What does this fold into?
Amino acid sequence: MFYQPKDIQKALGLKAELKERGAFLAGGTDLVVLMNHGKAAPENFIDLTHIPELRAIHKHNGTLELAGNVTYAQMGKLPIRCLARASLSVGGPGIRELGTIAGNLATASPAGDGSTALLALDAEVELTSVRGTRRLPLEEFFLGYRKTALAPDEMITKIFIPTNYQTDWAKNGKRGAMNISIVAVAVAITPKKEVRIALASVAATPIRCYQAEKFLAKNGLTTETIRQAVQSVRGEIKPITDHRASADYKVHVSGVMVRRLLESLVKQ
Amino acid sequence: MKTKACHPERSEGSQSFGRRRKTAEILRSAQNDKSGKGRLWSLKFTLNGKKVSAQVPPTRTLLDFLRLDMRLTGTKGACLEGECGSCYVLVDGKPMNSCLMLAPQVQDRDVTTIEGLAHSKKLDVIQQKFIDCGAVQCGYCTPGLILAAKALLAENSHPTREEFLAGMEGNICRCTGYNKILRACEQAADAMGLKK
Amino acid sequence: MSRPTDDTLEESAARLHVTSKSSGAYETGPMKVVGKSALRLDAVGKATGATKYGQDLFDKKFLFAKVLRAAHPHAEILGIDTREAKRLSGVVAVLIHKDVPGTNLHGLIRRDQEVLCSKKVRYRGDALAIVVAKTEEIAVAALEKIHVDYKPLPSVLTMEDALKVDAPKIHAEGNVLGEKHLRRGDAPRAMREADVVVEDIIQTQTVDHAFLDLEAGRARYDGKMLTIEVSGQWLHEERRLIALALGLPLEKLRIIQPATGGAFGGREDISIQIYLGVAALKLKGKMICLRYSRSESTIVRHKRHPIRVHYKLGAKKDGTLVAAQVTFYVDKGAYASTGIAVMRKASSHATGPYKVPNVWVDVLGVFTNNNPCGAMRGFGAAQTAIAYEGLMDRLAVKLGMDQAELRRKNLVKSGDEVTTGQVVPYATATECFDAVLKRIDWKNRSYETPAPHLKRGYGISIVCFGLGYGDGFPDASRARCRLTPDGLLEVYSGACDVGQGLTNMIAQIAAEEVGVPLEKVRPILSDTALTPESGSTSATRQTYFTGSAVHIAASELKKQLQDIAASHLQELVYEIKIENGAAFNVHRPERRMTLKEIARVGKKRGFSLEAMGVYKPPTMPENTQTGQSMRAFVTYLFGSHACQLLVDTETGEVKIERYIACHDVGKAINPDQVIGQIQGGVAQGIGMALMEEVVMKDGKIMNPGFTDYILPTIRDVPEIECIVLENPDPGGPFGARGVGEPPLIGTGPAILSAIYDAIGTPIRELPATPERVWRALLDH
It folds into this structure.
């Protein structure tokens, strides 16, 4: 059965009824791929693409609120460097028009570009169901390989992002565009000069490197401290060898990318 | 693809009657199928400038729907995972991979396929430049690329080289090496600029 | 003009100045159609979406077929139970090997592959059953209801394992497809006496054609004729193979080519045609459709052979090459396909454009349970070029010599012998190479980079490529030209336009020769019921072969038209010229008649108004022991590439900054299309050099979709500066040679050469992914 609610309340009502038997459909960039390959055949679809409020972007007191269906194309135009660059590194223009930030979070791919950028931004997610609304730091949202804190009746309705972080983003792949990352890195410096380092494709979920972050928060950003932080990053990540690259290479290149991004942030 | 009709009333028999009625109401409120069986979606949208109504199995991709039901075969499928751009259509002017959309998603939307680009036998300037510049070889990527360029130039009539690359990076061409495609797009931009 | 068809190259060379002019005694002036970048005749249809490819012929009211594939890479089939599948509502038929009426065998060179396997599967793409149903969804569902009882056998996944004494035998005769040897001089002795010797092992990867237009088509048997509409590369050969497999007389089988979205060798082996044939024959009167998904296409289709090349190269102190000893280990995968021919192409191109007096080559083709490997653009010569150019670079370093100087010194020149011992009368390798060196300003190349972690490198390569099948194979092309009552010039050829632009090549040659504007030409191509056999669209042979056949046919027809005009106008025939669609006396242009009038008059007077052209230049088989042949190939093509790139030494990422490709095409029939072929070939070469790789694990392809089979995007292909040289070939139409494969062959070696130049250590395994470049740097 295919449902096309026109507002969030209707969508939540449907989800509450159908739970796991109702699949949210927005960009389709994961779900429909699986369907095309015969690997998914949801019983019910709840199409979220006809809910205008889910595409909204608002700014309140220095915090950006992205509704769940904000697309990569929309995020590519935001003045938040790591998120914009991450979004523009996703697929081609067609995918960027389709794919949504909530979809990226909910899929919880270890290679999620948007997710990784949001992790570095200390983003929070708003999860809503007919039971109510809760707000969760993104770090607590990812539970494991393609596992999230999303309850069967919940929807990601909003993402909150600070606008006063200084950030950057880099991605490593085999070609110039449309890469699933071998490794992707987002870094940020908070107004309190704390550092955030998030990586994709180096663990079961996008992850933060807390030890390296703490070390830098304590010791400041210099060539030497960055060098030591890079060593820490290489120890904190646990990539696997797959058909994209070996674990050794991912560990190595993660360090290079983190170092380059931090050095360029310092220079800015 | 499997299309299964769902009857929540039957499958959740333990619920109270009042609850069941509410369930049915909620579910029905977001369907558009008058039969209530949900097997087909009553789709209304604008296709290449014309209002179209059709009954479509809701799990049919927009690509298959356009090709099989609407018999517009100019939209091509080549990877079915959003990695080649052959299936691009414009939805409200934006390029989208029709292989990743289900047909009901274009409800009330405006869809343009390659067949909708030329007007009364006069080719769109982008089509003409693709032909003039030798950007067409096997031709399978051509409709998608032309629509990608169309969307790009509609938003930005003077793209930089970098903006062209960003606008065309989602389309794989296996034949031409892209040089002539890029030239065709740049020449189309110039020609459109001259017209203004 | 009467084109020599059976004389020697020398004789035909002597007629060069005749053939490159035209047939009419009084004709002068520049050519009007050939050499012009006329717009592609098929471009409007393609740019508007009107053109119909295989999948565009589908209709919901037709039946849909699906094919069941092997669940194991190597297993015996104990039984196939189709009962449950047949019971499924909407299923029309479930067919297995017993339902194939003929030999049930196919294969381009050796019939070693069963259409539907009866006893054994040898790779995961092997077919076991065909389901025909009312919809594709039902057919897919029915596949799951077919129960195959397998006895899994140990799989053989590497050549090492395949060659072990106790290895499981993939084919009854063992795991060796064949060997190929070339002996020229005494290479071991010359190697011992050489001043400098370099040696290395290079491993190329499995590459997929990745054409966009997936295998798709339809077929119907009306009781008299089985008509199959599916894209291929050699329809007449496909017809022979399908007829044998299905036990059908040739005249009851018709194959029609829909528009084709790329092939690159990937449509040479039989694919869906044969399943469609089986199903349609069984279900008389029904139109049956079949298409592959991307993953099925990738899992089933043959690939470019991964080849391990042991290469040893010896030279004198001054850089003069004296010896090459080369061994190729070729992973054939499960079936022969065109493997023997690929192996022979590797051996016959072992030293490429370099003059080496002593060459010993051994090629071993080994069966495994991986995907069968066969034709792909470059056909064994692409892998070989990566090896010989890699070794030339290493030799230059060892000699302390400039890599361009070393190459230039050893290039074959006109009158020299190439690897096969064949004398090349017109070798233009040096011209191509010099053009490229000049364009990139080789002497003043700069190694300055914007940052210390970036290293710049310059790479060069030279291609010497034998055109056509060669080796004594009866390689021929035929074409027919006909003047219609409307005064249009119809050109019939069985050649397949797979997207490269053959249609224009044929039309432009015919228009030029007869003297009509291009828009008056109607090319009618690739339909076995209408068109004569023109051989395969492969081996870079269609311009040379079919172009010549068209040229001959057009020339013959023109004579007839001149005769008709002369007798009707009562003028001397050798004063009759045809130009712009009208015949006239060169001295009295007012004495004229249009082609339409000629057609009318000619018909009345009993002229056929049509002519056939056959082009069949002979080659001679290579000696089985020595691989030597006086004429291994009809002609050779030359080209040269240069590449400038940056390597990020920390991440291993490579950025191509500049790319130059020069090819001598003899005569560019349509220069724009020639450049399109060069740029497209280079783009595929970039893919092969830097990113493309089919990853196999336990006989299973791990990356069967475009998400992980990485193809070059618009960001990965730089501007490709093309230099087109036109040194006419005496055997080609208007001097044309061909251009399909050489641009790809030159690219891999040029890029790898540039990476080596940048980082000082060679990449021994392809593709040169960021990780492999990084590892090479670690080894440094």
